[in-house]
Automatic annotation (TrEMBL):
One of its GO terms (cellular component) is plasma membrane. The keyword Membrane applies. It is a multi-pass membrane protein. Gene3D superfamilies: MFS general substrate transporter like domains. PANTHER family: BLL5896 PROTEIN (PTHR23522), NUCLEOSIDE PERMEASE NUPG-RELATED (PTHR23522:SF4). InterPro entries: MFS_trans_sf, Nuc_H_symport. It comes from Posidoniimonas corsicana. Signal peptide: none annotated. The keyword ATP-binding does not apply. It is found in: Cell membrane. This is Putative nucleoside transporter YegT. GO terms for molecular function: cytidine transmembrane transporter activity; uridine transmembrane transporter activity. The chain crosses the membrane at residues 20-44, 56-80, 87-106, 112-131, 152-172, 184-204, 225-250, 262-281, 293-313, 319-342, 354-377, 397-416.
Length: 429
């Protein structure tokens, strides 16, 4: 493993981007292999089906493991990367943990062990995501221009993994494996590949600017929490991500209920929008700045749910298509631009811990609260107990996350003047 900095002879800038792009591709490919089909595997073994491993409702409550995996682990491993161990070695260790957890999931024949294995997986995968973001932002010589394009390869990894399981494997073997544990095993092998590749990444030494003395997670956390602009932004980020879970969990159900043909394929228009926004992001940052882009992303969620509410009340197909196509601003301006803004709001010695806190706020607290909000709205407006057939009042259902997104937009407008960067030497906004 090379020892030098990004600018040194061992890591010339011309070679850094391909290495970071490959890292992003390999980071998300293992999850893309099995995350989309695991619900099908669970359904095929629920109740008296298949091996009768899972109980009714397990597919739903198992999703909280992803949010729990963002609450503590990213902060802990971010601290370790800031104070004790190189980030790339931690990424390798975490992907070894992902591989072990995925193998455990594939071999589980009872619900409890599967749930625990899934929890272990997310507590390894989510901090690995935060650390790969840190590595990319620290080593790319022009992160404002290069990081969004590197993230395109993360989307490419996810899409190509799904195509491999959904098209390539069946064409070679003659049968589908989507209702089996095979995709999870393929994911485990892919995690091992990423673990090996992580050891070849540029050396990302713990930053000496953190300070002297015995390393202390508690002290570093207090120092970050004393950063008022960062704390305000994390609160706004958590609020912004509340509304995302309703679309993630219920959009496909809504499209099927409304009679749209090939809903899963129709929803891929959102990924096309993602790609276009990632391509445009460097120029948009230069033109508008990260803070205004984040505000536009939060407002885009309000627009999306307003369109879905209108479509539910009027059966407008155009509104549905527009709601899907706005996915790029919703995702890229909130999740990608947001983590880039976090990198600016802290000093270089706390990048890893700050990215961990960002994960805890967004995919942790934000997604957990959003899942509970969406579940409560489902019980009230879609499938209330004792009502048969279910009423499926979609306009009222989409109105709940619309209000949440509007409140988040208002909150961010209020704190926007207070978000002054503490890290101006390396970036400008």
């Amino acid at each position: 493993m090379a020892e030098p900095t990004t600018e040194g002879p061992h890591n010339p800038p011309s070679r850094l981007f391909p290495r970071v792009a490959a890292m992003m591709f390999l980071q998300y490919w293992p999850l893309g292999v099995w995350a989309v089909t695991v619900g099908t595997y669970i359904a095929a073994n629920t109740g008296e089906q298949g091996e009768a491993i899972f109980s009714a409702g397990f597919a739903g409550y198992s999703t909280i493991t992803g949010a729990v995996g963002s609450l503590v682990a990213p902060m802990v491993f971010g601290f370790l990367s800031d104070r004790l161990l190189p980030a790339e070695r931690l990424v390798a260790l975490l992907h070894l943990g992902c591989a072990a957890a995925a193998w455990w999931m594939s071999s589980c024949r009872d619900e409890l062990n599967f749930f625990i294995a899934l929890l272990v997986y997310w507590n390894c995968f989510n901090p690995a995501c935060a650390l790969t973001n840190k590595i990319a932002l620290q080593h790319l010589p022009k992160p404002d221009r290069q990081y969004p394009h590197a993230r395109l390869f993360a989307t490419g990894g996810w899409i190509s993994a799904g195509l491999f399981i959904g098209l390539v494997w069946p064409s070679l073997s003659g049968h589908s494996i989507e209702d089996t544990a095979t995709p999870i095993l393929v994911g485990a092998a892919s995690n091992l590949v990423m673990a090996c590749y992580a050891l070849t990444l540029p050396y990302t030494r713990p930053n000496p600017l953190v300070g002297r003395g015995r390393p202390s997670l508690w002290r570093d956390a207090l120092r970050l929490l004393a950063n008022r602009p960062l704390v305000l932004f994390l609160c706004a980020s958590a609020a912004a991500c509340l509304s995302s879970m309703a679309y993630n969990a219920y959009a496909n159900l809504f499209l099927n209920w409304a009679g749209y043909s090939n809903p899963a394929a129709l929803m891929t228009l959102g990924q096309v929008s993602d790609v276009l926004c990632l391509f445009a992001l460097p120029r948009l940052i230069a033109r508008f700045g990260l803070r205004r882009l984040f505000l536009a992303g939060v407002a885009a969620w309000s627009v999306r749910y307003g369109l879905l509410t209108f479509a539910s009340a009027t059966n407008s197909h155009a509104a549905v298509y527009a709601a899907i196509l706005v996915h790029g601003p919703c995702y890229v301006f909130v999740y990608v631009a947001g983590l880039m803004l976090v990198d600016r709001l802290v000093d270089p010695g706390h990048r890893g811990a700050a990215q961990g806190l960002n994960a805890a706020a967004t995919t942790g607290l934000g997604h957990l609260g959003g899942a509970l909000m969406a579940g409560s709205a489902q019980e009230t407006f879609l499938t209330p107990d004792g009502v048969s057939p279910p009423p499926y009042h979609w306009a009222e259902f989409w109105g709940i996350p619309a209000l949440a997104a509007t409140a988040a937009t208002t909150l961010f407008v209020a704190i926007l003047p207070k978000l002054v960067s503490t890290n101006p030497p390396q970036h400008s906004d």
